[in-house]
Amino acid sequence: MNFEPIGVVHSPFPQIADMPIQPTGAQGVEGAIELAPELVEGLRDLDGFSHLIVIYHFHRAGACRLTVTPFLDARPHGVFATRAPKRPNPIGLSIVRLRRIEKNLLHIEDVDILDGTPVLDIKPYVPAFDRPDGVRSGWLEQAGEAVRSKRSDRRFE
Ligand SMILES: C[S@@+](CC[C@H](N)C(=O)[O-])C[C@H]1O[C@@H](n2cnc3c(N)ncnc32)[C@H](O)[C@@H]1O
Question: pTM, whole model, 2 decimals?
């Protein structure tokens, strides 16, 4: 498997310390995705969607850990039961608001992504596809609204 980045994220977060840990903690934070110019044709009709699923490489994540103590709990959990960046395949996923598209620049909001992050894919967020009924949130149910105010630290570098 050999993926090439399709673009790069520009965000106000040049370092991991103190940045938001999810888009719900980054409401209104502006950024952009600079798409490779040769891929612009692929943006046709994307401007009709309010939100995007952005899939990217956690390029600054350190070595993978299979058991992690995540930002929102003091207890350890299996990495696949968390959104921690240090994963066997360090891939991140954020649902961000699409503000506007100018040529190969996608202006986005609610950005919880490090500046300079390589983007692997962009898909439209579609509630009819992506919002299932009867959801349970496992150990994260006790975390409540903490995700809104919690900030990252260097543990995951
Ligand atoms: C908990 S992850 C969640 C990211 C995404 N919303 C997800 O669920 O996959 C967010 C944290 O990942 C770290 N991070 C963000 N971009 C990164 C990058 N390019 N490389 C390494 N770590 C990154 C920061 O610590 C940030 O607070």
Answer: 0.96
